[in-house]
Amino acid sequence: MAFFSFFLLSTFFLLAQQTEVKYLSGTGSDNTVQWQFMCTGGMSANKWTTIAVPSCWELQGFGKYDYGLAKDSVRGKEKGLYKYEFTVPVNWKNKTVNLCFEGVMTDADVKVNGQSAGEIHQGAFYAFKYNVSSLLRFDGKNLLEVTVAKHSANQSVNEAERKADFWIFGGIFRPVFLEALPQTHIDYIAIDAKASGNFLAEVRTGSGNKISVQLYDAKGAKFGNITTANVTGDKTFIASPFSLPKLWSTEFPNLYKAVFTLYKNGKAVHVVEKKFGFRTIQVKPHDGIYVNGVKVKFKGVNRHSFWPTTGRTTSKALSITDVQLMKDMNMNAVRMSHYPPDEHFLDVCDSLGLYVLNELAGWHGHYDIPTGSKLVKEMIEHDVNHPCIVLWDNGNEGGHNFELDHLFANNDIQKRTVIHPWQDFNGFDTQHYREYNYGIGNYEAGHNIVMPTEFLHGWFDGGHGAGLEDYWEKMWSNPLSAGGFLWDLADEGVVRHDLKDSIDTDKFHGADGIVGPFHEKEGSYFAIKEIWSPVHFERKEITDDFDGTFNVENRFHFTNLSQCKFLWRLKSLQNTSLKEISGTAKSPNVLPKQNAVLQISLPNTWKAYDVLYVSAFGVDNKEIFTWSFPILKPSCVAKRFLQRTSKASRPTIQLQDSAFVIGSSGVSLRIHQRTGLLLDVKNAKGDIPFKNGPIVQEAVNNFSSFTQRYEGDTLVIASSFDRKKSYNTLQWKIYPSGIVQMIVRYFPSNYFTWFDGVNFSFPESQIKGVDYMGNGPYRVWKNRLKGNQFGIWRKEYNNTETAESWDYPEFKGYYSSFYQCRFVTTSQPFTVYTDNEDLFLRLFTPAPKTDQWHNYEPLFPSGDISFMQGIPSIGSKTQRAETTGPMGGKNIFYDYEKDSTRALQITLYFDFRNQ
Fold first, then answer.
1. From CA 41, how far away is CA 837, in angstroms rounded?
2. pTM for the full predicted model
3. Coil, helix or strand for 176?
4. CA distance 345 to 356
5. Mind listing the pLDDT tens digit for each residue in 144-192?
6. Which residue range forms the structural domain that includes residue 129?
7. Beta bridge partners of 691
8. What CATH number should be reported for the domain holding residue 235?
């Protein structure tokens, strides 16, 4: 009998009708359909033509570009008039046909064949539908007319959506389609599937007698048995326990499919499929957020639905790209700022694994109660089954209507917690952009779960990776911290058809992404990738007694490091005949939040190489990060260089016009007799315009009383030390080979300094690029040193201004762990080496920037090319550099007595010979 019943249910399933879908528009920005269109204002106004649907009409050459903060952005009466003719299958005549819109900005007045489809829909980011069964013609063409108002007739909608800190677009920007259902059909399904295996579904139907559900795993195999329930009015609950399901998390995004079948009088009439995941989200007050019983910390970012050529109209391909970018940065969470996303984005978060905070729109303004009540219901009913959604956001930064809070639980079968981003609310402290000292101090003294939904506001090259290491280490160690969310993923730069297709970020308003408008990767991208790596390497210096061991910490939540893969490479940067060697390391068996030792078995010849790279790969076989560990020291590189130089005649020197004029192996130098500064350089091919240095930054150039002598065949020109008058000293050595050594010993003038080092002049117009050994290829700041690798890097000159132009990596800026650099010029190259560890190379000065708060001010020393022992940090839109944490503070050095043995020292070697 049981087998016979199963056979009948299976047969009925095969005979049941599925929901049929006919798209009237395209499915996204990469698949559109042309509709008739007229815009009533702005570009190309008041003439009928065609437009791609879905789209934002500004990006199609219509209307006016508006950034939400502009004073006139909500004054326009701009409307778009859409027409589209379509047919429907004749066999739909006896079906229920819904006309579905996934998103329209902002008010949508819909007519079918001249008759209203229903009330005007207000609210841009929410899916809505009309039952148009009685309005359709099944024997000919149908006319769909949609009048779209860019700004709403409902002032609360404008307050919540149209006055925000982002671009304001108009149009039918998400897909439009018809769905045909049998007269007896399933209207709605909501699933709550717990980590315990308990499965509960709410099914709404207009009629019918029985409902069944069969689960399938990711491979299509049946999971468990068919479960049935009798229909009880409009709302039926169907429940069943399942044994040992594979759980959903960001690290293991296991999905199942539930197939629901509705029966009427013993006949299967409608079947609907829903994807879901077994997982339990639990918020424990004064403790944290638990996923499947494990406390998690969010490594998150805020993300707009955006692409520079299509605005808010995106595609599944773009959603995949965005999620892959986040996963590649080792993020595990994303906040929908500041509205619900396309469904395909949530689909991708489900399948690839990201925790999502889904948000009702609101930014310093909120919906009124009637409108907000409707939109909360639309948002939740549309998105309820996505396992990626772990929390609901009721607006943002003051855009919270408290009267709507109870509606989230009322509409959500999973009863997910609702938060107010920017407020201390409902057991969460989510306040934004707290300065490190105040914020961390307050967090550690508080009692609520700490989860800033925006912290470290990226702006140009500031924020994001700058300061993140300080914040994150505190977040990681604080039991009440649930992590946080950076602002934000991508620069909102619009390709403006009215400005010769240039990219417009509305000046500084949209220039706050980790990646550029077309996903160009900034330096912070890689800093975040390393800082948020779930495999955390303890700092390690490679010395002669290195035994191949690294101390590592497992910062995953669910993954054992034994499930990861580790590869290593030994590389010589200078000896090209020494072949690279690589191998694997046994992954340590260590549970999440535990420490272990990673052992690498290196060959006996490992000391002959220059650098060791270690790469970690996750369960998905994608790189987590690659760390680099220099084996050689800068002094070794300098020594090798000096050993390659040939012997020659003793340098010559004469005094001429208050300058030492020196000649050695074709190199001619002039050094000022009194100051010791380099005045000019020549070789047999001509001038090298590297001069006017060393100028000591944030210290006095009190070099004095220069003398000259020979040490063997080497010429030495040196200043004299005097504790009161000339405590900073300079020495030049000119070798017979033509190599020039410079040694500066100096004392910074202040206890706190932004700069420690020396500067030289070089005309920027004559630089073509550099080949340098050190960490690269991205520039650094004092509070953003992570993300690079040690190697030899070729950098072509560019004049990129971060988030204003996007030719990354930028050329100008600071570079860490400098060993050597060959400067490629329009005339002839020259090379500089050093003995110093931890030296920074500075290349020229980007355009100066400031803001009304003086938070974001990139600081650079005088001169053009510098060699620094201390560099400044960088601020952001919301914080000064020094308030982002200890790494953001100034450099500290003080020696009141001016003891020459304790002075800072920089040693450089210059090769100005023909190269």
1. 62
2. 0.96
3. strand
4. 10
5. 999 999 999 999 999 999 998 999 999 999 999 999 999 999 999 999 9
6. 18-181
7. 761
8. 2.60.40.10
